[in-house]
Specification:
With 337 residues, this protein is an alpha/beta fold. It contains 10 helices and 13 strands.
Length: 337
């Protein structure tokens, strides 16, 4: 009877088809990224960045929000040659948000009008492109600290009240892979090699789950995947991710595109008989001939299983599908051959 009960619990947890990948469930924290606010020339230089830092700090105290680290975001933006201020258009902002793994973006402007300081914030769903706005005004000569706290409170309330409109419904992984195939269909994809450094529970993994899953997706979408040699060691991957100016091993004769990344998983809960795990995957697409980074994507996933390792594998596979859904269409859009 105990085995039957366990089976029924697992059956209830499994969807029809491959596991769902997509918008956060009601109980999951939403990943939010805050851009520097655009500022009027009449205001103090650097105020837009300070406002973004303070809004980020206020929002990080919200249990239903998980903030994308701003230093990491700025690093990725710099590598891609993109801007991270409120002056970017909505299409570019959504593209940046997807690359840094954010489900919701916060952008905005601050400017004086009739002697008052005005802060306008925009909250954008990266998958739905739904936009909501907040406005706060201060008294003449008033310091901005109170206004920033007020606009942060309004942003948090707007996200909470409009979660279902800002986030997409969960989509089966099989459906996401079909959308990836459509992005490649009728085009000649580059020859690609991939190497992902992976840790599980703080220890280096002998074989990368994320790499295996990504190879399966790439080959299924028509990419020619070439097995990398010893020159692409885990040590080189770690060095490159820490310093993207590190040279790329001699692959030009065989490979046009190199995917380099890292993946981490850990068990987060054990409620008998089930284990829960979280996985995070980040991958960069590099044009081998020039060293140019074409795209970056990072995503997290969760997994549940009777075995701790199986739950970690589930989490990493879900995160990898999410990364592929962003990375591969972006590669095809920017591939110049």
């Amino acid at each position: 009877m105990k085995i039957l009960a366990v089976f029924l619990v697992l059956l209830a947890l499994l969807p029809a088809g491959r596991p769902a990948a997509g918008g956060a469930t009601v109980n999951e924290a939403v990943r939010v990224s805050v851009f520097d606010f655009e500022t009027s020339p009449a205001l103090t230089d650097g105020l837009g960045s300070e406002i973004a830092d303070m809004v980020n700090a206020y929002l990080s105290a919200q249990p239903n929000l998980k903030m994308v680290e701003r230093t990491e975001m700025q690093k990725i933006l710099a590598e891609l040659g993109l801007s991270g201020t409120g002056s970017v258009d909505q299409e570019q902002a959504v593209r940046i948000g997807r690359m840094v793994g954010a489900e919701i973006l916060v952008t905005g402007r601050v400017f004086p009008i009739d002697g008052e300081m005005v802060i306008v914030a925009r909250i954008i769903g990266t998958e739905t492109t739904r936009v909501f706005g907040n406005v706060v005004k201060g008294l003449p000569g008033e310091k901005p600290a109170r206004l920033i706290e007020e606009v942060a409170d309004k942003i948090a309330s707007t996200i909470g009240d409009n979660r279902t409109e800002l986030l997409p419904p969960a989509v089966l992984a099989d459906d996401k892979i079909e959308l990836i195939r459509q992005a490649v269909q009728g085009r000649t994809p580059p020859r690609v090699s991939i190497r992902i450094y992976e840790e599980s529970g703080g220890r280096a993994a002998a074989q990368s789950v994320a790499e295996t899953e990504m190879i399966s997706i790439l080959t299924g979408c028509g990419f020619e995947v070439i097995q990398p040699g010893e020159e692409l060691s885990p040590g080189w991957v770690k060095t490159y991710l820490e310093n993207s100016t590190a040279g790329i091993p001699g692959l030009k004769d065989r490979v046009e595109l190199l995917l380099v990344g890292e993946a981490f998983s850990e068990t987060t809960d054990h409620t008998h008989p089930l284990f829960s795990s979280k996985g995070r995957v980040e991958i960069r697409a590099i044009e081998v001939s020039s060293g140019r980074i074409l795209a970056v994507a990072r995503k997290t996933g969760t997994g549940v299983d009777l075995l701790a390792r199986a739950s970690a594998v589930d989490a990493l596979e879900k995160a990898t599908v999410e990364v592929a859904a962003i990375l591969i269409p972006e590669i095809m859009n920017r591939w110049s051959r």
